[in-house]
Amino acid sequence: MCITLSFARYRHIGEMGRVIRAQRKGAGSVFKAHQKNRKGAPKLRSIDFAERHGYIKGVVRDIIHDPGRGAPLAKVQFRDPYRYKLRNELFIAPEGLHTGQFIYCGKRASLQVGNVLPIFQMPEGTIICNLEEKTGDRGRLARTSGNYATVISHNPETKRSRIKLPSGTKKVIPSANRAMVGIVAGGGRIDKPIMKAGRAYHKYKVKRNCWPKVRGVAMNPVEHPFGGGNHQHIGKASTVRRSASHGRKVGLIAARRTGRLRGTKTIKED
Question: Model pTM?
Answer without folding.
Answer: 0.87
